[in-house]
Write a structure and sequence with these properties.
15% strand; binds nicotinamide-adenine-dinucleotide; single chain; alpha/beta
């Protein structure tokens, strides 16, 4: 076991994952945080998926517990923060991983209810989790928030609601960083690029009606670095750094984890 998060308590939202062949960003991050010594609260609205993550962490000798909750519900976010504090006595790290792109579309096709749902799950959720965790962090004058945005926020994409919500995550993070710096709380954003996670591969395979091998090949070909997508572990390692004291002078940044996708212009 490592020590980079020794003595720290982390909440990871979306710590289960979409069913599929590879590991999701949230599950990989929860496992890595536990490996590095953090005690971890695994929140997911899909409890059985969070329980799978718990078993993986327990098998490695890590410490964690699961919590069934929907991050679009304010009462669930209140309960999440209270439960974590009751269980472990402190909250040092909040990893806001939950995000979806389901049923997104171009501007003339996107339905109002789908816009609302994506904005709620991707953006309102982070406002709510932060609203209820920040007071615990302020009380101890320390904390690290890592919000998962997406390269889609700054790149060209036809997914209107996903892009807009993820750009909102960047703005929210800047607000959190400036508003909480005097309390010793850091807030940073990660912008994953094209990742080989179940949400992307199994998700697009289903929505586009294409075999997963084709979805993988097409996405791999779009990545500048080695023409290969990243994995959940790449997001996890970037999150580990930003959540740890190694990043103690870093706040308000947007870190692309994208194999160079966001700097390829033209
Ligand atoms: N995979 C990619 O290519 C990619 C690229 C850029 C950004 N991202 C971002 O990475 C993040 C997570 O990706 P992942 O691969 O871990 O996804 P995932 O689908 O594997 O995991 C997300 C988890 O969140 C849970 N969840 C969904 N809505 C919830 C809600 N309202 N309340 C509580 N839990 C909820 C799901 O049950 C699931 O277990 C998302 O924010 C996504 O937008 C992914």
């Amino acid at each position: 076991m490592g020590i980079r998060l020794e003595g720290k308590v982390a909440i990871v939202t979306g710590a289960g994952q979409t069913r599929g062949e590879t590991i999701g960003n949230g599950r990989a991050t929860a496992i890595l945080f536990a490996r590095e010594g953090a005690r971890v609260m695994l929140l997911d609205r899909n409890l059985s998926s969070a329980e799978e993550t718990l078993e993986m962490i327990n098998d490695e000798g890590g410490e964690c517990f699961t919590f069934e909750g929907d991050v679009t519900s304010e009462s669930d976010c209140v309960a999440m923060a209270e439960q974590c504090h009751q269980h472990y006595g402190q909250i040092d790290i909040l990893q806001n991983n939950v995000g979806i792109g389901f049923r997104d579309a171009g501007i003339t096709k996107l339905k109002e209810e789908d816009w609302d749902h994506i904005m709620n799950v991707n953006l309102k959720s982070m406002f709510l989790t932060c609203k209820h965790v920040v007071p615990y962090m302020r009380a101890r004058k320390t904390g690290a928030i890592v919000n998962i945005s997406s390269v889609a926020a700054i790149a060209s994409t036809g997914m209107v609601a996903y892009k807009t919500s993820k750009a909102g995550v960047m703005a929210l993070t800047q607000n959190l960083a400036t508003g909480n710096a005097r309390f010793g709380i850091r807030a940073n954003c990660i912008l994953p690029g094209l990742m080989n996670t179940p949400m992307a591969i199994e998700g697009f395979s289903t929505s586009l009606g294409q075999p997963r091998e084709k979805v993988i090949a097409d996405r791999d070909a779009r990545v500048p670095l080695n023409q290969k997508m990243g994995t959940g572990w790449d997001v996890a390692y970037a999150s580990l750094f930003l959540a740890s004291d190694e990043a103690k002078f870093i706040t308000g940044v947007n870190l692309p984890v994208d194999g160079g996708q966001s700097v390829r212009i033209g």
